[in-house]
Design goal:
heterodimer, A: about 325 residues, TIM Barrel, Alpha-Beta Plaits, 2 domains, nine-stranded mixed beta sheet, B: about 800 residues, alpha/beta, 25 strands
Chain lengths: ~325, ~800
């Protein structure tokens, strides 16, 4: 069987990414992640399975539609409270995720795309067809394709095949990874990956495990081995107040990056933001990040940037 | 990232005055016009109009304000908005005050209601005067003649209410055509004395011997002599005013400045410019003349950086001026342009916007002789001015090509980040060859193009383009209504009016070809009636409204002895626009997909739902929105319908012409008319409900683009942009995070360039997020400088009507 028939579970394909690697990029987001970082702004990426998502703002209301309630076998959809809408007062549907059987029958009825399935299987060839539409823009801007997650290496065969096909067509490839994967998987991807977008969240393994759920030894080791084997890394540090923004930890991170030498193309500091909040609502999961955690201000970010520069690293904010 | 520098304090003071402007209607021009017209009551318009202009130049009040270094005013107040009763009578203001809609406030002035976002006032004396001459002008205005009799089709066109000739709307002919770029360069390189001598030489050579066409030429040159006399008088009077102020001025620095201004103006009253100050002030004086002679909509400046750079370079080389001084002069020039708002009834706000001047400035581009990049330090200065002063007006058009330097791209994109929609990016490599091919320009003149109005493409000082027809707000037929009528046997479902053309009903049609054929027939019928009406208006203009101020500078007129309105210009065209064809294309796609290909509903069901304005058919509507492919997503199934629509429109335009012009330019632009048209277009088969806006200009339908900006670019290239020499506007709203750093700015530039390589003509970016727009709606006072682009102009967001604000919010915000 041709490998292009391999299937992967994808929750989004987004064109015109300008902050995730060089040039303009199209990013393929794969579902499933072994980490559960509380600041994750794509909570729908964490589960390895397709799942229900409900954007109530799009619901047309039971007066005009209400078809979803008729097909729900679990009684998870009910008429909600009265609300003001453009056309007058309406009752939108309320989704009870705790009762939902995740059968997705309702999504077939919801033309407004309020109820939808997050996570769909694509063959490599299907993804390639979508990506090819963007090639002119990717090439002319010095960009390419990024495979991201979740943790894309959890779907190793699909990810590697996708990277291989893209690179074979002369397009720059990047793999956005947590680094938490067996070396064998990373090694498998290495020849087809022009650049690793590589997250470093905390240098202390215990602290890393306490917050993200996994320790960091393998992550650090994979980074070293990528560097040793000729791979390129764009290191990404999410700056999370109270977790990893101590000077001590950031200095340790900087030292680690410096040790990797020329393999590190740039260190990217990503200030925490609350923009994922509505995505938690859509899958009815509480946002684990306390609302009072504020994004680091520009002054602080500048200080961290200088810290990186002081270690001889090329660094940027965002 | 390009860093904008702080402006001088006096420039900032001027800027604040302009931001807080209250436009003042005044009667001075009407007083002088009425006296002059009464004196010359039965003199032929060719001479009567220049005589009035000369009287006006002799008598009008001049202003030299304390912070000003570039002077020029349209009336006795810095924000004067004169009336032009010779076209449309003494105007809507008098009617509004008489009807008690404006109130007399403590400052002794009438003010328009606060609910109207643009602020106007008028003195009781001026109001009384205008009222006293109302009957006089009601009888004499051009509009009266135009309205008294029209060709047959006008009745049907107006009754159907499917074009800018709205039922009960404005007069058929209430404004001159305007919308052009006069020959500023000719004025500053020749001077009024030489131009006058040229005209006088012809008269002297033909004295007492006018045979054949000589008579028309004689009248033309006579008019130009009188016009030049007026011009000399006006500029000299400004000089005298500056000199008088200098004599009284205690502050030594200001005194010397006023003396310089007096000297500059004295010289420019007759002579060609010697230096940068001369050139800029000379352009401004002529700009004032264009606007006091006549209402002249969209008197665009054109290639300011090209006219002025040779002078600045000379000054810099000679050490006579510094870059900082030059930048302040550019700031002052642009702020001066911002004093020239014309008032308009509030209802016009949704069609063309009010509170913008349409004095477009074109920058960058190539050298007309060599074809090499022509950008220069003045190009950067213009972006600097617009960016640091956050000016939404005038529209700045940035001509780009593969030769445009990267630093200029960076500077332009940094400007886009600060000022919504500005600049507009234009693709020289598409426009120039097509101007030669489609419109017959010489390569040299094509390379010298500029943009006017919303973004229409015209020659710079060589062209009489009348791109919005001969009564400017009358630029478009409403394609959404054409779609509805085509499937409803020629009856407009909005008002039940029946067209003389019957096209059958959707429920009797059995394939998409039949539907397309009905649309083609209806569009052709409406366009023919529309342009016939336009051509009649043009016929009237030729007699009533020769334009001696414009004809003085536009290439061809002085050479031929022929006024611009009679075809004197080197190039002639006219045209219009089809805004929101995406709504029609998506309607066709919907019919094709739902009724014929997938058979998800019958033609009867879709017909009934459309005719019911979708009431009671919400589920079908949602299904259409979700399942039917739409233009803007790079889906050939949908894009092929857009291509069919634009090709149809272009083919129809090719059948239109007048005696003055063989070229009717097709355009895909349209100020803010999509909102206005939406209010007068019944529900459409694509699931759009009345009175929602139709798609704007050449953009995809609001929120129908679901695949990101690259697919919008790809879809937009599904048709040949080269056929739309009227101009194309593609609007994109970008989330500010895209441009948050140098990298993002550079990448947006690269994507734009690739769009142009693929054949895109134009793009304009609004860089603002939904949250900010909503906050601005809630707390307008905190967002007074937030500039957004609608379609054909930019404006302060908080000054827009709610519908327009909501329309901008409803456009998809394209992010990273």
């Amino acid at each position: 069987m041709s490998k292009t028939g391999l299937k992967g579970k994808i929750y989004d394909i987004q064109g015109f990414s300008v902050h995730d690697g060089p040039g303009v990029r199209t990013t393929v987001y794969l579902k499933g992640c072994p980490l559960h970082c509380p600041w994750c702004h794509s909570p729908e990426s964490q589960s390895f399975h397709s799942q229900m998502s409900y954007a109530s703002t799009r619901c047309a209301g039971v007066e005009a539609c209400g078809e979803c309630m008729k097909v729900c076998p679990a009684g998870a959809l009910e008429q909600g409270a009265e609300e003001k809408a453009a056309g007058g007062l309406i009752h939108k549907v309320r989704w009870h995720s705790e009762r939902c059987a995740q059968c997705f029958a309702c999504t077939q009825q919801c033309f407004a795309e309020a109820l939808s399935v997050c996570g769909k299987d694509y063959t490599v060839e299907e993804v390639m067809q979508i990506l090819r539409r963007d090639y002119d823009f990717l090439k002319s801007s010095g960009g390419g394709v990024t495979v991201s997650g979740g943790e894309a290496l959890c779907q190793e065969e699909f990810t590697v095949e996708l990277l291989r096909c893209v690179k074979a067509e002369g397009i720059h490839t990047a793999l956005d990874t947590t680094g938490f994967a067996p070396w064998k998987a990373v090694e498998h991807a290495l020849p087809h990956t022009d650049l690793f977008l590589y997250d470093l969240k905390h240098m202390d393994s215990a602290e890393h495990e306490r917050v993200t759920g996994v320790p960091n030894e393998q992550i650090l080791e994979n980074a070293r081995r990528i560097a040793a084997n000729g791979g390129k890394l764009q290191v990404r540090i999410p700056v999370i107040p109270g977790f990893n923004d101590s000077i001590e930890n950031l200095s340790a991170t900087a030292r680690f990056c410096a040790e990797l030498g020329g393999a590190v193309t740039v260190v990217q500091l990503l200030p925490f933001h609350h923009m994922g909040a509505s995505k938690y609502e859509r899958i009815q999961r509480p946002d684990p990040m306390p609302a009072d955690v504020m994004p680091p201000d520009d002054g602080q970010m500048q200080k961290y940037l200088e810290l990186m520069l002081d270690h001889g690293l090329k660094a940027i904010i965002h | 990232m390009y860093q904008f520098k702080p402006a001088s304090e006096r420039i900032l003071r001027l800027r604040e005055r302009i931001r807080d402007r209250v436009l003042q209607y005044d009667a001075e021009r009407v007083r002088i016009l009425t006296e002059s017209t009464k004196k010359n009551e039965n003199v032929i318009p060719d001479i009567r109009r220049p005589l009035f202009f000369r009287d006006l130049c002799e008598k009008m009040t001049l202003i030299v304000d304390e912070d000003e270094i570039i002077v020029g005013n349209k009336g006795p107040h810095i924000f004067s908005s004169p009336s032009y009763p010779e076209w449309s009578g003494t105007d809507w203001v008098v009617d509004a005050i008489e009807a008690g809609k404006w109130d007399l406030r403590e400052d002794g002035m009438y003010h328009n209601p606060d609910s109207e976002d643009i602020k106007y006032m008028m003195s009781p004396e001026d109001y009384e005067y205008l009222k006293s001459v109302r009957d006089y002008w009601a009888f004499r205005k051009v509009g009266t003649m135009a309205d008294a009799w029209q060709p047959e089709c006008f009745e049907e066109l107006q009754r159907l209410n499917v074009s800018s000739y709205v039922k009960g709307g404005n007069s058929l002919n209430g404004l001159p055509a305007g919308h052009l770029i006069a020959g500023y360069n000719r004025i500053i390189t020749k001077g009024y004395a030489a131009l006058k001598a040229e005209a006088q030489a012809w008269i002297d050579a033909h004295r007492d011997n006018l045979m054949g066409e000589d008579l028309e030429k004689y009248l033309f040159y006579k008019a130009e002599v009188i016009t030049c006399e007026g011009a000399e008088i006006l500029v000299r009077r400004y000089s005298e005013k500056c000199a008088a102020l200098a004599a009284e001025c205690a502050d030594e620095k200001r005194r010397s400045e006023l003396e310089t201004m007096a000297e500059t103006l004295a010289w420019m009253s007759e002579n060609p410019a010697r230096n940068f100050r001369d050139a800029v002030q000379g352009i401004m004086m002529y700009q004032v003349m264009i606007q006091i002679y006549d209402r002249t909509p969209s008197p665009s400046i054109g290639r300011f950086d090209q006219y002025t750079w040779p002078y600045l370079k000379k000054d810099l080389d000679a050490g006579k001026l510094t870059m900082e001084e030059a930048q302040e002069i550019v700031d002052a020039f642009f702020l001066k342009l911002n004093c020239f708002y014309g008032g308009a009834p509030i209802k016009l706000k949704d069609t063309v916007g009010v509170g913008n001047t349409y004095q477009n400035v074109t920058v960058g581009g190539v050298d007309p002789d060599t074809g090499e990049d022509a950008s220069n330090p003045v190009t950067f200065m213009i972006f600097e001015t617009i960016g640091r002063l956050k000016l939404h007006d005038p529209t700045v058009v940035f001509r780009t090509s593969s030769k445009t330097p990267q630093e200029l791209w960076d500077c332009a994109l940094a400007t886009s980040r600060l000022v919504g929609g500005l600049p507009l990016y234009y693709n020289d490599e598409l426009v120039i060859p097509m101007m030669v091919k489609e419109c017959g320009y010489s390569l040299r003149d094509a390379r010298d193009y500029g943009c006017i109005g919303c973004q229409e493409i015209v020659g710079c000082g060589t062209d009489y383009p009348a791109p919005n027809g001969n009564f400017p707000p009358h630029a478009s037929v409403w394609w959404g209504s054409i779609m509805d009528m085509a499937i409803n046997d020629g009856k407009n479902p909005l008002n039940g009016e029946q067209s003389s053309l019957h096209t059958g009903f959707l429920y009797d049609m059995t394939c998409i070809e039949q539907v397309r054929d009905a649309v083609k027939q209806m569009a052709t019928h409406i366009m023919r009636m529309f342009v016939t009406t336009q051509n009649y208006a043009e016929h009237l203009n030729k007699f009533f409204a020769p334009e001696s101020v414009l004809s003085l500078s536009i290439e061809g007129c002085m050479e031929k002895g022929k006024d611009v309105v009679r075809g004197g210009a080197k190039y002639n065209s006219f045209g219009g626009t089809a805004t929101g064809l995406a709504t029609v294309a998506d309607s066709l796609t919907t019919i094709k997909y739902m009724c014929f290909d997938k058979k998800l509903c019958t033609t009867r069901e879709l017909y009934d739902a459309t005719m019911a304005n979708w009431e009671g058919h919400e589920k079908l509507r949602q299904q259409i929105l979700a399942q039917v492919p739409h233009f803007g997503n790079n889906d050939p199934y949908a894009d092929v319908e857009m291509k069919w629509c634009v090709d149809l429109y272009r083919d129809i335009c090719k059948q239109m012409y007048t005696t003055r012009s063989k070229v009717f330019k097709a355009g895909l632009y349209g100020a803010s008319d999509h909102v206005n048209q939406g209010r007068l277009t019944w529900g459409t088969p694509d699931g759009r409900k009345y009175p929602e806006p139709i798609a704007d200009a050449a953009s995809p339908g609001q929120s129908r683009d679901k695949s990101g900006p690259l697919q919008i670019f790809n879809s937009s290239c599904c048709y040949d942009h080269g056929g739309f020499m009227g101009g194309i506007a593609l609007n994109m709203r970008m989330h500010p995070s895209v441009l948050s750093n140098d990298e993002g700015i550079k990448k947006l530039g690269e994507v734009t360039k690739e769009y142009f390589r693929k054949g895109g003509m134009e793009i304009q970016y609004n860089v603002v997020d939904t949250e900010t727009l909503k906050k601005a709606q809630a707390e307008p006072e905190k967002y007074r400088d937030l500039v957004v682009r609608i379609a054909g102009y930019s404006a302060y967001f908080v000054e827009l009507g709610r519908d327009l604000q909501n329309d901008i919010i409803s456009r998809n915000e394209l992010t990273v």
